[in-house]
Design goal:
CATH architecture: 3-Layer(aba) Sandwich
Radius of gyration: 18 Å
CATH topology: L-fuculose-1-phosphate Aldolase
Strand order of the largest sheet: 3-2-1-4-7-6-5
Helix content: 40-55%
Oligomer: single chain
Bound molecules: zinc ion
Strand content: 5-15%
Distance between the termini: 16 Å
Number of domains: 1
Number of strands: 7
Order of helices and strands: HEEEHHHEHHHEHEEHHH
Largest sheet: 7 strands, mixed
Structural class: alpha+beta
């Protein structure tokens, strides 16, 4: 597998566009499979809307996955393992300017999702509309039920929902458990993961899929919030959700949207 970092840069800038209200300042992070053994992830401290190639770090996958299986006892040990997984030119002692970038604090969940869900791209943001729900008692209702057909087509029949956990390795470990439960129930990886009191993650095979899922999730959040103002939100019946998700013409539409 070989993806161009240019596509990761343009996807990240689009997610960071201020008018979209998905992230502000240094919020959010993205990643992309680089090859079988490594991936690119946003570096810590970079803003998404104006990011360039120097805002990403190449990281080896195996050491990051090992962190989840055998979490180090100290943050110092965890940091040393993460730094040793960084590939040139940003590795410590790298030759290009000697600048050692740190990967995003969320590097471990990016590694886990790229590997376990076998996807090429990930976009993690904190949209205001989504967090208005995830910071409320309505988070599970929003995540587990669907309200209109295009939400089903783009975001899948349900979202995976992860309880709040400390950002970094603790969040990656909790998220892995929820993703495994989702895959056991649905026979496939989630397209959308919602993190209580935190934000959302879109998973996909192309930058277009990440942008579409994020946009549709935000639209669904706005509709849900509007429905809460006017009364109790209604939901599509579960059998209708499954029917919509499996309809050949909807599968065709989904594939057309993401084939970019
Ligand atoms: Zn976050």
């Amino acid at each position: 597998m070989s993806n161009s970092i240019g596509s990761l840069i343009s996807m990240t800038r689009a997610l960071g566009e201020p008018a979209m209200d998905y992230v502000i300042i240094g919020e959010g992070n993205t990643s992309m499979r680089r090859d079988d053994d490594s991936f690119y992830v946003k570096a810590s401290g970079h803003q998404m809307h104006n990011i360039g190639e120097d805002g990403f770090v190449a990281v080896r996958l195996a050491p990051m996955l090992a962190l989840l299986d055998d979490p180090p006892k100290t943050l110092t040990e965890q940091k040393a393992i993460t730094e040793s997984a960084i590939l040139p030119p940003n590795a410590l002692g790298g030759t290009e300017g000697g600048l050692a970038l740190s990967p995003s604090i969320e590097v471990s969940f990016h590694a886990m999702l790229l590997h376990d869900c076998d996807v090429g791209f990930i976009g993690h943001t904190h949209p205001t509309a989504i967090n208005q729900i995830l910071c409320s008692e309505h988070a599970a209702d929003f995540a587990l039920k669907r309200r209109f057909p295009d939400e089903v087509v783009l975001c899948g029949p349900q979202s995976a929902l992860a309880p709040y956990a400390d950002p970094g390795l603790p969040l990656a470990i909790v998220m892995r458990e929820r993703v495994q439960q989702f895959m056991a129930a649905h026979g496939e990886a989630p397209k959308l993961i919602l993190l209580e009191n935190h934000g959302m993650i879109a998973l996909g095979g192309s930058p277009a899929e990440i942008l579409n899922i994020t946009a549709m999730a935000v639209k669904a959040a706005r509709i849900f919030l509007g429905a809460l103002i006017t009364g109790k939100p209604t939901r599509l019946p579960d059998e209708e959700v499954q029917h919509l998700y499996r309809r050949p013409d909807e599968i065709y539409r989904r594939q057309r949207f993401v084939a970019k």
